[in-house]
From TrEMBL:
Keywords: Aminoacyl-tRNA synthetase, ATP-binding, Ligase, Metal-binding, Nucleotide-binding, Protein biosynthesis, Zinc. PANTHER family: GLUTAMATE--TRNA LIGASE (PTHR43311), GLUTAMYL-Q TRNA(ASP) SYNTHETASE (PTHR43311:SF1). Belongs to the class-I aminoacyl-tRNA synthetase family. Residues 11-274 form the Glutamyl/glutaminyl-tRNA synthetase class Ib catalytic domain. The gene is gltX2. This is tRNA glutamyl-Q(34) synthetase GluQRS. It comes from the Bacteria. PROSITE patterns: AA_TRNA_LIGASE_I (PS00178). The keyword Glycosyltransferase does not apply. Pfam families: tRNA-synt_1c. The keyword DNA-binding does not apply.
C-alpha cells in the first residue's frame, strides 16, 4: 500500500476496450477539476483485466484522447493486467476466511432460478452452490468444470456490523455526509473466474488502496456498487475513500452513453473538427 499522503489523490480508471466518448470525457474532466479544487492529484489507471476485449491500441488511444483534452498525470500508469498475483492474494485472503466459494452454475441456470435482480438489473444469484459439500466442490474442480468464485455475502455481512461510507456533493469541497451501505442487495457477487483471478469489484478496491486514493469520483450509476466495495474494504482491511457521484451524459433518447451502443467517440468528434475547447464548453468545464 502507498504511504499516507497529506494531499488528496483521485483517479480516472477507464477500461481500454474501445474508444472514449463524451461520457468518459466528462468523468475525466470532472476528476481533474475535483483534484484541483481539493489541492490534490489525479491519476490514470488502466482497468484491462478482460484480455478478450482490452487491447493495447485502445490504451494508447485513451492516453492520446486525454492529452488532447489537456490532461496530464504522474507516471507510471497503473495497469491492472500486470497485477493479477496481487488480486489473487486478496481473493485468497477471503478464501482463507471461508468467505469465497466455487460456483458452477451457468447464466441460464441462474436466470431460471433467480427471484430478483441486483442493482444493475442482472438476475440475483439464488445461492445454488453456496452449500455444496466440500467433496463435491473438489470433485468438480478436479474435473475441470467451468467455475467462478463468489463471495458469501450474507456470511461476510455478519462479520462487519453496520457499514457506512462518506460521500460529498458535486463541488467535492461540500460538507461530507455519512451514508449506510447495503451490500446485501448484490447477493453473492463473482470475484474470480477460471483463468481470471479478479473482477472489477475486487481489483478496484485493491488498487484504490495501493495508490492511496482518498477520493473516488464516479457516475451516479456506480453509486450502488459502492455498497459492495465498502464491504470488501472492510473484509480486506483496506481504507475506504470518500465518494463523490457525478451526473451522467445522456444521448438524445435519454440513455447513458456507451461504447457498446456506438456513442460518438472523441476521435470521431476530433476528426469532424471539434476542438478540446468545444468539448469542454459542451460539458460545462
Amino acid at each position: 500500500m502507498s504511504s499516507p499522503s497529506s494531499k488528496p489523490i483521485l483517479r480516472f480508471a477507464p477500461s481500454p476496450n474501445g474508444r472514449l466518448h463524451l461520457g468518459h470525457a466528462y468523468s475525466a474532466l470532472y476528476t481533474w477539476q475535483a483534484a484541483a479544487r481539493l489541492g490534490g492529484t489525479a491519476l490514470l489507471r488502466m482497468e484491462d483485466t478482460d484480455p478478450e476485449r482490452c487491447k493495447p491500441e485502445f490504451a494508447q488511444a485513451i492516453v492520446d484522447d486525454l492529452h488532447w483534452l489537456g490532461l496530464d498525470w504522474p507516471q507510471p500508469i497503473m495497469v491492472q493486467s500486470q497485477r493479477f498475483p496481487i488480486y489473487a492474494e486478496a481473493a485468497n485472503q477471503l478464501r482463507d476466511a471461508d468467505l469465497l466459494y466455487p460456483c458452477f452454475c451457468s447464466r441460464s441456470e441462474i436466470a431460471t432460478k433467480a427471484k430478483g435482480t441486483d442493482p444493475d438489473g442482472a438476475p440475483l444469484y439464488p445461492g445454488t452452490c453456496r452449500h455444496m459439500s466440500r467433496s463435491e466442490q473438489i470433485e468438480r474442480l478436479q474435473r475441470g468444470d467451468p467455475v467462478q468464485f463468489r463471495l458469501d455475502t450474507a456470511s461476510a455481512i455478519t462479520c462487519t456490523g453496520l457499514l457506512t461510507f462518506t460521500a460529498i456533493g458535486p463541488l467535492v469541497t461540500d460538507r461530507p455526509q455519512i451514508r449506510y451501505a447495503r451490500p446485501e442487495r448484490w447477493g453473492d457477487v463473482v470475484l474470480q473466474r477460471k483463468g481470471t483471478p479478479t473482477s472489477y469489484h475486487l481489483s478496484v478496491v485493491v488498487d484504490d488502496a495501493a495508490q492511496g486514493v482518498t477520493h473516488v469520483t464516479r457516475g451516479r450509476d456506480m453509486e450502488p456498487a459502492t455498497d459492495f466495495h465498502v464491504l470488501l474494504q472492510f473484509l480486506l482491511g483496506l481504507p475506504s475513500p470518500i465518494y463523490n457521484f457525478h451526473r451522467l451524459i445522456l444521448d438524445a433518447e435519454g440513455r447513458k452513453l456507451s461504447k457498446s451502443k456506438g456513442s460518438p467517440t472523441l476521435a470521431s468528434l476530433r476528426d469532424a473538427g471539434r476542438t478540446p475547447q468545444d468539448i469542454r464548453q459542451e460539458l460545462g468545464f
